Amino acid sequence: MTTSLPTYTVTGNPLRLFLKKAAAALMADFSPEAKERKRLEAAFHQTVSKYADTISGICFSFARNPAEYEDLRQDALINIWRGIGNFRGEAETRTWIYRVVMNTCVSVYRKQQRNPIRDAITEIPEIADTDGDTREDITFMHYLISQLPETDRCIIIMWLDDQSYEDIATVTGLNRNTVATRLRRIRLKLAEQAKKII
Fold first, then answer.
1. DSSP 86
2. Dist. CA 151–CA 72, nearest whole Å
3. Which helix (H) or strand (E) holds 103?
4. CB count in 10 Å sphere of residue 181
């Protein structure tokens, strides 16, 4: 024998209406949807906290100014939130984060290429808390990297962040040997450009 909860018809009694709404809200907190949302929120906050430097670094590498950096970072966080429920753990979390953030940055970059309403001079984001020579070196390297094609930029950024060739291959969609070859060419190209300017 199954018993069902009594149903109430609330007509004019404000206390009953309040109690019914309170009971419905309380039940909603224990619904499977509410539990899933709380799980996703916890996973999102944990992931973003753990990989905050990675997210910021990638966005910084693609940004031409502080406002663009903030926009890229915000878009990346939104895309991480949208995708975290679909993340099944088939790849490492760090690799997945790279892929989401890189795809976000590349997508914005491509939109800007189609709609080239930008300054003639590329602005470099401000770099804080470094001494003079180091700051100039970092700004210079950021400039050189910003001039690379998007896939090359992705490869060098991940390499500078000590990612394995396998992880770089996973994010870029290239095979491991291609990543190694392109990385060598990118490093040579950056060295040549640095020599020309210095």
1. T
2. 17
3. helix 93-114
4. 12
Look up residue 23 and give its amino acid. A
Show the 3-state SS of 19-80.
HHHHHHHHHHHCCHHHHHHHHHHHHHHHHHHHCHHHHHHHHHHHCCCHHHHHHHHHHHHHHH
Q: What is the pLDDT of residues 165-192, one digit of tens each?
A: 998 888 888 999 999 999 999 999 988 8
Sign of CA dihedral 163, 166, 171, 173: positive
Residue 130: alpha-carbon gap to chain centroid: 25
List pLDDT tens digits, range 36-94.
878 888 888 898 899 998 898 888 888 878 888 899 999 999 999 898 888 887 878 88
Q: What pTM, to 2 d.p., does this model score? A: 0.60
